[in-house]
Write a structure and sequence with these properties.
The relative contact order is 0.12. This protein is α/β, with parallel strands linked by helices. A hairpin with a 4-residue loop joins β6 and β7 (73-74). The chain contains eight helices and 15 strands. 28% of the residues lie in helices and 24% in strands. It has three domains: 8-64, Beta Barrel (OB fold (Dihydrolipoamide Acetyltransferase, E2P)), CATH 2.40.50.140; 68-219, Rossmann fold (3-Layer(aba) Sandwich), CATH 3.40.50.300; 232-296.
Amino acid sequence: MIQSDTLYKIVDSLSDGYVVCNLDTKETTLAKIRKSVVYKKGNILIGDIVTLDDQNNINDVVERKNFLLRPRIANIDSVLILMSVKEPNYSTYLIDKFLLTVNVSNVEPIVVFTKIDLLTCDEEQNFKKQVEYYESIGYKVFLTSNKNEHSKEELIKYIKNKTICVMGQTGVGKSSLLNTFSNDLNFTEGSYDMKNLNRGKHITKKVIFRKFFDGFIADTPGFSSFELEFDKQTIATNFPGFHKYLHYCKFRDCLHLTCDAKICKIKDEFSKDEIYKLHYENYLKILSEVKENKKWK
């Protein structure tokens, strides 16, 4: 079979194959995969870059530059972490968990808060402290609402022409927000149900890439909670806000649990401020919940 040098991106999976997009022409076609490719390269992920033979069979997979474990998606430039401030209420614990997951995958995380217009004046003051915290530890933060088109325009300007994955709470309005970016996206929208335990409905069932300017954007199933599969050392190294203090810890395998500032700079720094204390408590909670897989032992 003749192998083409043309590169394609896996944008969707179907029962009879994969939808692939030609990276030059942006045209899509259906492709199947040879068992020998799966044997050599492993399972295909949405986002993988592949080549086809003359019968539209996937015959090679380009080495991934990165991938997320959950959602399972490959070769992305940035992850939009969407979190509503109300309905459902935002959770710093869940944000920190999302950021940790993205940090481990070596992908740029972007925090996007939605429904800002629902905050009262008092709530807005407390919320601003959290925004300032995430910005202070190096994350790009956008605040959006249906009443502020300018905020969406700034976000679109920042992410267009990139390969973007979106993750966030169930009911946060991921699909709804994405559909305001472009009339061509047409992601299925869910709703937030106040009567159903303050939870949104899981509408998005799988990861699909759509063309977005000269790049791609993917909606993903929402999370109300999720377990991490990382070992404790990976969490200690990649927890948001820890990176700039890591080299001050005396031991490389420090889990940042000691109060001695000469041994652990992170525990010392995160005990000085109420905001930092809250996120350190999130770290402890994640550390206590992690179930170490046998492969990490």
